[in-house]
Amino acid sequence: MATIVRAVKLSKQVLSGELPLIILHEINFEVAAGESLAIVGASGSGKSTLLGLLAGLDVPSSGSVWLAGADMFALDEDGRASVRGELAGFVFQSFQLLPALTALENVMLPLELRGAADARQRAELSLRQVGLSARAHHLPKHLSGGEQQRVALARAFVSQPKILFADEPTGNLDAATGAQIIDLMLELNRVQGTTLILVTHDELLSRRCGKQLRLEAGRVVEL
Amino acid sequence: METFRLSLNLLRRDWRAGEWRVLLLALVLAVGSLSTVGLFADRVRQALWQQATSLLGADMRITSTRALPPTYREMAEGRGLRAVESRTFPSMVAYREQVLLAEIQAVETGYPLRGQIEIDDGAGLLTGRGGEREAQSLIPSRGTVWADERLMRRLDLRVGEEVGLGTQRFVVAARIVKDIDQTLGFASFAPRVLMNEADLAATGLLQEGSRIAYRLMVAGEAEQVAALRAQWLPRLSGNERLENVTDARPEIRTALERAEHFLGLAALTAAILAGVAMALTARRYVARHLDGCAVMRCMGAQQGQVLRLFLYQFVLVGFLAVLAGSLLGYVTQAMLIESIASMREAGLPQPGMLPVLKAGVSGFALLIGFAFLPLLQLRRVSPLRVLRREMGLPAVSGWLIYGLAILVLAILFLWQAGSLKLGLTVLGGLLAGLLVFGVLAWLLLQGLARHVYLSGARHALNNLARHGRSAAVQVVALSLGGMALLLLTLVRGDLLQSWQGKLPADTPNRFVVNIQPDQRQAVLDFVEAQKLPPPRLLPMVKGRLLAINERAINGESYADPRAQGLVEREFNLSYADNMPQWNELVSGRWWASSDEVAGQLSVEEGIARTLGIRLGDELTYDVAGSRFSARVTSLRKVQWDSMQVNFFVIGTQRLLQDYPSSYLTSFYLPPDKVRAGDELVRVFPNLLVIDTGAAIAQVRNIIAQVTQTVGAVFLFTLLSGVVVLYAALLSTQDERVQQVAILRTLGADSAYLRRLHMGEFAVLGLLSGLFAAAGAALTGWVLARHVLEIPYQSNSLVWLTGVLGGMVLVMLAGWLNTRRLTEMSPMRILREE
């Protein structure tokens, strides 16, 4: 299968006071289309930094990331945004729903940003897939955590992304709700043939992914 | 187009969530206040102008000692202006065995073009327009004349009796109660008689060599009058004099200028307050939209698209606000006009669209100046924020943000204040004040937290000190709001009262000119016999300015017609040991008596500017055929609207005392003693007694109208002040919500939270109140000293009200705002707020 995500000698260091602090050190790996990869490790091991770099949300100190053949850091900020818009969907630990928008409007947003004419119909369909049709016109603050994360999933999958980046998607949820969300996410992933890149603490969850990448102090210790 | 549609959708959604309310309100108030003031000032200006022009009887006029060529009138009528002519000449009026020299004015139908003549025909008051009964004619009908009070009093004449004018006899059809069209510059001293132009030829009064003042008066659209003035000016010959309101009495001009400045400043205060409210709201808006922007950037939105999304919303909201604000402004000014009787009756023309347009543009400028740059930051939100919530706003140079706001304010100030100096002074003062208050607030908060050990206040003080910068901004914003309230309630009243006090009831209303040296004692005795306070006699020497620094000057040396007029006639010079009251030294120094060996001169700054005289220049005068030269050692500012005797040029006593001089004086003649003025002229026929009562009434009228107007205009300032207070409290609301949730989780009970909040609000209120009082007192002082030019009296109530009121108001508003939070569960707070 074709490689869809490739990281080459990816490093990130920041200045902590006067001293350089290495967060990621020469990370190399590839993910094929349709695969799922769990990035695991202790707090502060660099998981979220790696996810941010893979999605082109941040820039590395050195090295490169290729998404579907596009060299992300050869592009400018807007170029990377463009690639994300075409390829990627996101699910976050803190849901990141826009508070002034209803559930439906939140799901419509990525399509609207692209100027899709059928945004509403597709968003309604996506909400139905996550079982939230009845809550379509509620504001996020009136939804439970699990419901908010389901809206976030609907929003992530509505544009049928090739890659889904998920940052601790169950981190803010209780175990039972978290399990439901994982089931739903993996199911959507399977149906749409999406590549999944997931950051998690949860060993159980990581084992449900095809591959695991373990980080310790910014280095890959297991792949 | 897609972005625009999405932008509309987002606007609709944010609108529903109430995100725009405060910003919209602030902008509506800013545009509302600017357009109210603009429209209202436009109409007040028209009203004041109308009153001022009523003294001329026209918008502009040419007076000449020779018959005026018909081209002048043709030019005026060609511009659609109304024009009438009159001839004025001195003549004896005969009644029984008496004759009295009077000023006869023959007028044609249409006269006066501006203002109203009030007459009493024996059956009651009549006015030219409206009044108790409609006047049958605006001018005396043929065969009749109207005579003024002075003539009737001096001749003991009654309405209905006949007087002789030249070879004809005329019935006195009415007594002139309120006259207009008086000669400017206090030269009108003879009694006046108004007659019909058509009767003039028959009287035989106009002979070869008669002293006649030919006058052409015009009135109409201001722009046309201005254009006509430009057209007339170069054509004027030496004996033709052009007058309009701006050439008119300096005391009225000064009062008008003060009024306009005062109103303009009131409007700008409201605009600044609204700007501050907008800045606070925009900051909050941006902070609340950071996450949304980061999510959109994650979803592939480009920087330009994000910017456009928000920009369209701002422009739309701006547009709505400008529309609503303009409408509000229009309605408010209409209501104001209705509520002020003298303005309602003046039948003012509708205001133009220009003030509304100007207010709209200013509103957008405020939006750009105060809200645009924070908005620009949204464009640069890092998408990484979705993973790292702690990432704040991308750094935009603070200088850039404040610089743009200051630039916009500066432009607005210059535009609205219409005076570079005034605009820069106020703006500079404001910025310096804000900076000083901000730094002081920060220092005080840090100091209080470190050195106050009150157990109850400790946490509150620490909390404020930790948020030092935002707390300081909050204090400054609250102070601004409070300052507006204090200015409105306390300082305004004091200021206007003092301004009115500048013309006390016993302001001199009679000027007596031409008192000869040997008549001095007799005049003083006469005044004393009338039981009036003894007046000061001031010496007056007539001299013609020949040269400045030995360079000869004459009318041709100047392009300015006013300067030409000034050098072509004799100056009234005076001498004094001390600088007269109502005069203020602008540069140089006033002489001590020991300085008198060398002659020195002190010149009024306005005339110095007109004639190009500078400090240190040597002026050469010709007085009755002999010359003297002396240096200008000081320039003075004269308060013409004090209605006191004032001189353009004053010299040292030794310099002028040996030249032929006469004396002049002024005193207040109460209404029940008006006959004393006539008596004075009868006893000393060479004296000129000038009645300045009308001009005093005019200035008083202007002050009274401005007082009423300012009250209304400040209402907007008040509202804007309240919005700023609200926005300032709201600006830290999100932070407070987070904090309450965390503290509640950590086990803080409601009593602790209440104590914490009330402590914080009390300190914020106290500091803001203190600064607000300082700001109001300072502003009051500046307004008193430099705009109204009255002595400033500090009012301790301002400080007391500021400090106590500030604490109570901020604590109350804060309590209302946070009351709910202290009673909710932390989970609900985080979810719902």
Furnish the topology, listing elements before pairings.
The complex is a heterodimer of chains A (223) and B (833).
Chain A: E1 3-16, E2 19-32, E3 36-41, H1 47-54, E4 62-67, E5 70-71, H2 77-87, E6 88-91, H3 103-113, H4 119-129, H5 145-158, E7 163-167, H6 175-192, E8 195-199, H7 203-207, E9 211-216, E10 219-222
Chain B: H1 2-16, H2 21-56, E1 60-64, H3 70-78, E2 82-95, E3 98-107, E4 118-120, E5 125-127, E6 144-148, H4 149-155, E7 162-165, E8 168-178, E9 192-196, H5 200-203, E10 213-219, H6 222-232, E11 240-244, H7 250-298, H8 303-339, H9 341-345, H10 354-379, H11 398-417, H12 420-451, H13 455-466, H14 468-501, E12 510-515, H15 520-529, E13 538-548, E14 551-552, H16 561-568, E15 571-575, E16 583-588, E17 600-604, H17 605-611, E18 618-623, E19 626-638, E20 649-651, H18 653-656, E21 662-667, H19 674-683, E22 688-691, H20 693-731, H21 733-745, H22 750-788, H23 796-823, H24 826-832
Parallel strand pairs in B: 3-9, 6-8, 15-20, 17-19
Antiparallel strand pairs in B: 1-10, 1-11, 2-3, 2-7, 2-10, 4-5, 4-8, 6-9, 7-8, 12-21, 12-22, 13-14, 13-15, 13-18, 13-21, 16-19, 17-20, 18-19
Helix pairs in contact in B: 1-8, 2-7, 2-8, 2-10, 2-20, 7-10, 7-11, 7-14, 7-20, 8-10, 10-11, 11-12, 12-13, 12-14, 13-22, 14-20, 14-22, 14-23, 20-23, 21-23, 21-24, 22-23
